[in-house]
Amino acid sequence: MKILSVGGGAGEIDLQILSKVQAQYPGICINNEVVEPSAEQIVKYKELVAKTSNMENIKFAWHKETSSEYQKRVLEEEPQKWDFIHMIQMLYYVKDIPATLRFFHGLLAANAKILIILVSGTSGWDKLWKKYGSRLPRDDLCQYVTSSDLAQMLDDLGIKYECYDLLSTMDITDCFIDGNENGELLWDFLTETCNFSKTAPPDLKAEIMKDLQEPEFSVKKEGKVLFNNNLSFIVVEAHV
Hints:
Elements: E1 2-6, H1 12-24, E2 30-35, H2 39-50, E3 58-63, H3 67-75, E4 82-88, H4 97-105, E5 108-119, H5 124-132, H6 147-157, E6 161-166, E7 169-171, H7 181-191, H8 196-199, H9 202-212, E8 218-221, E9 224-228, E10 231-237
Parallel strand pairs: 1-2, 1-4, 2-3, 4-5
Antiparallel strand pairs: 5-10, 6-10, 7-9, 8-9
Helix pairs in contact: 4-6
């Protein structure tokens, strides 16, 4: 079985996926290739593989490149077909998402599938990005894309898919404790902005802070503020 991990990071989720595949198809040989632009993440991935058991039937290959670099390289060669491609929490960092979807869909073998995971259109992320995206500094490549946007793109491309939502919350209580180190990092994560608390206009931070405690963004439970972190799992089918 040939599996392609696009944006595999340090491999924690990849190895869980491989374990599930091995359980479903005992003894099968797996060719697992990873596209990941961070050298640091690839090192961590290799270290994780080295200390994980039951990897004998899996052949790993890592490519230090972005998905667009991978596309460019593959188009210059003879593209191979894949039985399973997964793209987990990485489409935010792709410039042309429809073109990326079309390209990887074209690499599917018969009866193969792509698994895409990203934040749901029902999540607090969707509300946060739609309301404040234009006011947040764009100092990195981050597309404010949710499953609702992706479903529309797939519909426009005529690609068949199924969507499953996973209910999820994220404890952001520390965001409301002044000077809390974890809270500062959470602010950076929520806004995709380095040192947000120190660099953002005070009125913007105050406005977001107020909204984050509203029911459309979060629930308050046992003294904690739990941000709506709902995720969507989108399973894309190969052309029949």
